[in-house]
């Protein structure tokens, strides 16, 4: 294998650009996934029956279909409906929406783990529904599931390369462009692969430590 | 703007077939990798545990799409020989989902009570039989629900091969989109197809889980597990009866 270190040198600035885009996409879609997931979880727990059913069907559908196809759907179909989004927004919405159906399950487990007495205490204090959720249930539920949510951020990180199919210039997109200009595919793709391992291994190690600490 | 013609439906149907093939072949490879790596991570020898751990961290740490890129574009340039696209895809999916699966195997085997291993030692069973007759039958039912999740993830992961030009369902959708000039119908159809496949797989795995639980003497039919009939009846029949009787009891 002919490995060319100067190619790595040439690629590193591009990798840094890509890393920045990856980080932005990840941060935004993680926020979206956390927010929307909470909406799904609360809607399925205390929404009216008319909301609960469709939310259950929708989340089940999104969770069981490929993110890649969902990205294509957003990228090609929304403009046909008159809504044109930038590459970044399409990617963030796709990734965030997809993972919101996972975080919804995590929140649901957390909410179910809150003892019944807490609900009853909130009723006894005649707290409004909003306050019951906001100051009693959710703070306890979310603390419990924080590591699980963190694990999904790592999973999302590993799915960000998919965003290049809609034209987001994250790390893999940069590698593709670099290799089509210079034909130095070996170095570019390998460097991106190593970058992902270097990012996700410490992150998952951190999450495992956090889990162990919280479990104690 | 035009309808999806019968010829285009055929493209999608061929795509479904490729997607199913990819799913089953890579699931088979992933299962093999998961068992070997998962058991190696519980091996007595530190070096074996370490090697399996490195494999697990590397393949779990990287993204399946990047691994696929690597196998498709780097391996041919670096080594001078090229894999058939289909097999490169199976290899990439099998190796990365096998790494996830190894954690499932490791966890389930580690959760079998120590006394069971010791009983095997006390009965003077060789290690292979201990594993095959005592540990795995008890660990297996615990593995099935997480394996189901991984199988669905794998099914979703197969869509990535369309980026590499393997003509799976997602690739067929792109062709149909180009031919008809419309995106909404074809992408809606293939999302539904993926969903139906995932749904069928989940159902199948649930049946498998019930059988496995009955086979290990667990689950709803507790009494049946202790009765002499259970001990002498062929395993399959007992499992089928358990699956039938447990339908109402399981939530």
TrEMBL record, chain A:
Residues of the ABC transmembrane type-1 domain:
15-207
Q: Which GO terms describe its molecular function?
A: transmembrane transporter activity
Highest taxon of source: Bacteria
Q: Which Gene3D superfamilies match?
A: MetI-like
What biological-process GO terms show up in the record?
amino acid transport
Q: Which InterPro entries does the annotation name?
A: AA_ABC_transptr_permease_3TM, ArtM/GltK/GlnP/TcyL/YhdX-like, Ectoine_EhuD, MetI-like, MetI-like_sf
TM regions (residue ranges): 20-43, 81-99, 188-207
- GO cellular component terms attached to this protein's record: ATP-binding cassette (ABC) transporter complex
What family does the database annotate?
Belongs to the binding-protein-dependent transport system permease family.
Q: Which PANTHER family match?
A: L-CYSTINE TRANSPORT SYSTEM PERMEASE PROTEIN TCYL, MEMBRANE COMPONENT OF AMINO ACID ABC TRANSPORTER
Protein name listed in UniProt = Ectoine/hydroxyectoine ABC transporter permease subunit EhuD
Organism of derivation? Streptomyces inusitatus
TrEMBL record, chain B:
Source domain of life: Bacteria
Q: Which GO-annotated molecular functions does the record name?
A: transmembrane transporter activity
UniProt domain ABC transmembrane type-1: residue ranges:
16-202
**Cited PROSITE patterns:** ABC_TM1 (PS50928)
Please tell me whether the keyword Protein transport is annotated for this protein. no
Any stretches that span the bilayer, and where are they?
16-40, 52-73, 182-201
Q: Which Pfam families does its entry note?
A: BPD_transp_1
**What are the protein's UniProt keywords?**
Amino-acid transport, Cell membrane, Membrane, Transmembrane, Transmembrane helix, Transport
Q: Which CDD domains match?
A: TM_PBP2
Q: Where is this region: Disordered?
A: 213-251
Compositional bias, Low complexity, is annotated for: 222-231, 239-251
Bilayer topology reads:
Multi-pass membrane protein
Which cellular compartments is it found in?
Cell membrane
Might you report a single GO cellular component term? ATP-binding cassette (ABC) transporter complex
Q: List the Gene3D superfamilies hit by this protein, alphabetically.
A: MetI-like
Entry's Gene Ontology BP terms:
amino acid transport
Cleaved signal peptide residues: none
Q: Which family does it belong to?
A: Belongs to the binding-protein-dependent transport system permease family.
User: Which PANTHER family does its entry note?
Assistant: L-CYSTINE TRANSPORT SYSTEM PERMEASE PROTEIN TCYL (PTHR30614:SF0), MEMBRANE COMPONENT OF AMINO ACID ABC TRANSPORTER (PTHR30614)
Listed name of the protein? Ectoine/hydroxyectoine ABC transporter permease subunit EhuC
């Amino acid at each position: 294998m002919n490995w060319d270190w100067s190619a790595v040198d040439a690629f590193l600035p591009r990798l840094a650009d890509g890393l920045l885009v990856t980080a932005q996409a990840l941060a935004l879609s993680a926020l979206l996934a956390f927010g929307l997931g909470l909406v799904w979880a609360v809607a399925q727990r205390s929404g009216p029956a008319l909301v609960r059913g469709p939310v259950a069907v929708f989340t089940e559908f999104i969770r069981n279909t490929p993110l890649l196809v969902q990205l294509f759907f957003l990228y090609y179909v929304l403009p046909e409906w008159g809504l044109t989004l930038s590459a970044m927004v399409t990617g963030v919405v796709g990734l965030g929406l997809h993972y919101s159906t996972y975080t919804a399950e995590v929140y649901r487990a957390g909410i179910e783990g809150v003892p019944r007495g807490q609900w009853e205490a909130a009723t006894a204090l005649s707290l409004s529904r909003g306050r019951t959720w906001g100051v009693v249930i959710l703070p306890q539920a979310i603390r419990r599931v924080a590591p699980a949510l963190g694990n999904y951020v790592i999973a999302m990180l590993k799915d960000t390369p998919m965003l290049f199919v809609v034209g987001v210039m994250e790390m893999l997109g940069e590698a593709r462009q670099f290799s089509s200009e210079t034909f130095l595919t070996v170095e570019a793709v390998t460097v991106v692969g190593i970058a992902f391992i270097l990012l996700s291994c410490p992150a998952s190690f951190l999450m495992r430590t956090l889990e162990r600490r919280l479990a104690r | 703007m035009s309808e999806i013609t019968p010829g285009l439906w055929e493209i999608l149907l061929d795509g479904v077939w490729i997607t199913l093939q990819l799913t089953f072949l890579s699931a088979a490879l992933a299962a093999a990798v998961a068992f070997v790596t998962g058991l190696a991570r519980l091996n007595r020898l530190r070096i074996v545990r370490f090697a399996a751990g490195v494999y697990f961290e590397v393949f779990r740490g990287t993204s399946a799409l990047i691994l696929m890129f690597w196998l498709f574009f780097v391996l041919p340039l670096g080594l001078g020989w090229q894999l058939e696209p289909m097999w490169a895809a199976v290899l990439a999916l099998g190796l990365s989902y096998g790494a996830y699966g190894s954690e499932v195997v490791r966890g389930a085997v580690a959760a079998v009570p120590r006394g069971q291993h010791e009983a095997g030692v006390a009965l003077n069973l060789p290690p292979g039989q201990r594993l095959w007759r005592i540990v795995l039958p008890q660990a297996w039912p615990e593995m099935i629900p997480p394996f189901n999740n991984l199988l669905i993830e794998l099914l979703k992961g197969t869509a990535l091969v369309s980026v590499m030009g393997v003509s799976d369902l997602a690739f067929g959708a792109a062709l149909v989109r180009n031919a008809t000039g419309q995106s909404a119908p074809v992408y809606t159809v293939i999302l539904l197809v993926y969903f139906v496949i995932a749904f069928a797989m989940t159902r199948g795995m649930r049946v498998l889980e019930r059988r496995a639980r009955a086979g290990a003497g667990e689950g709803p039919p507790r009494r049946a597990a202790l009765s002499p009939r259970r001990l002498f009846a062929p395993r399959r029949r007992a499992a089928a009866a358990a699956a039938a009787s447990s339908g109402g009891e399981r939530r």
